């Protein structure tokens, strides 16, 4: 347990630290909340966990109490490194990396399968998700805090307002569900919006990189003009003929096509 440590608020005060807007900092200072998130993320069965943006270390403390074999922190704000070092018990289980998570190569941080857990900085949440789901390194599971609207766009189903490119790309490569909602007041300082935690498990069989690229082209065109019929929004890519080759009704709109339908459109693209 980490109960012997001073509270997160006392730790921040002792280091003279406060949240910086430019780093998207909104902290979770209630360990009951961070422990709950880690319960949704686990069990880890001794595997490594990468935590992006640990900040004052509320999630880190909960991860250190869990069955994670290793905990690797990636934090961009150098002010937090000394504070996070205080969580290191010298056993070699904790690694602290000062880096930009958008640039870091995760495969160099961990050996074998690893989980990803993060209360993400909102301004880089979506690019980080896309990096982890479609890039060269993929975690075995991801448990990520997003602003509520983004979480809804990740898990949205056809016909829902939030259904779009992010839902199709994410669900083509992973199972995704919202496991927890948090009001703005749960954070210090509170952001302007509510948040939600999404748990994602990458599919065992994911589309090959070139198929994903084609899926990105099709979804960008289809949802770029989401109110238009596909025969028109996909005109540059083959229009009605492309739809027919994919077994899709050319008069349909993007928001009604499921992930399997978009994959067929991507496959029909030459
Ligand atoms: N995990 C902490 C918590 O729950 O209290 C802090 C969450 S705060 C929303 C986001 C954290 O991500 C901050 O510590 C911030 O400095 C860090 N951060 C912002 N941009 C980053 C980036 N590109 N790479 C790594 N960390 C980043």
UniProtKB/TrEMBL annotation:
It is an enzyme of class 2 (transferase). CDD domains: AdoMet_MTases. It is found in: Cytoplasm. The keyword Endoplasmic reticulum does not apply. Its EC number is 2.1.1.182. Belongs to the class I-like SAM-binding methyltransferase superfamily. rRNA adenine N(6)-methyltransferase family. RsmA subfamily. This is Ribosomal RNA small subunit methyltransferase A. It comes from Brevundimonas naejangsanensis.
């Amino acid at each position: 347990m980490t109960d012997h440590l001073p509270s997160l608020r006392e730790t921040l005060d002792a280091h003279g630290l406060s949240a910086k807007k430019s780093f998207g900092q909104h902290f979770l200072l209630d360990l009951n909340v961070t422990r709950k998130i880690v319960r949704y993320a686990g069990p880890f069965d001794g595997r490594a966990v990468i935590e992006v943006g640990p900040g004052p270390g509320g999630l880190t403390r909960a991860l250190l109490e869990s069955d994670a074999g290793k905990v690797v922190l990636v934090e961009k704000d150098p002010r937090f490194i000394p504070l996070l070092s205080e969580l290191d018990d010298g056993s070699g289980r904790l690694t602290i990396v000062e880096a930009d998570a958008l640039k870091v190569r995760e495969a160099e941080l961990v050996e074998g399968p690893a989980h990803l857990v993060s209360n993400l900085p909102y301004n880089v949440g979506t690019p980080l998700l896309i990096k982890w789901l479609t890039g060269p390194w993929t975690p075995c599971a991801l448990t990520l805090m997003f602003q509520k609207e983004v979480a809804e766009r990740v898990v949205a189903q056809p016909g829902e307002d939030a259904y779009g490119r992010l839902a199709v790309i994410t669900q083509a490569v992973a199972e995704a569900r919202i496991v927890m909602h948090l009001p703005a007041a749960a954070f210090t300082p509170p952001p302007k919006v509510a948040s939600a935690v999404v748990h994602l498990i990458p599919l065992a069989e994911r589309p090959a990189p070139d198929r994903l690229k084609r899926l990105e082209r099709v979804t960008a065109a289809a949802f770029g003009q989401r109110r238009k019929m596909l025969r028109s929004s996909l005109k540059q890519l083959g229009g009605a003929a492309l739809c027919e080759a994919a077994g899709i009704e050319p008069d349909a709109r993007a928001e009604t096509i499921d992930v399997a339908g978009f994959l067929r459109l991507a496959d029909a693209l030459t």
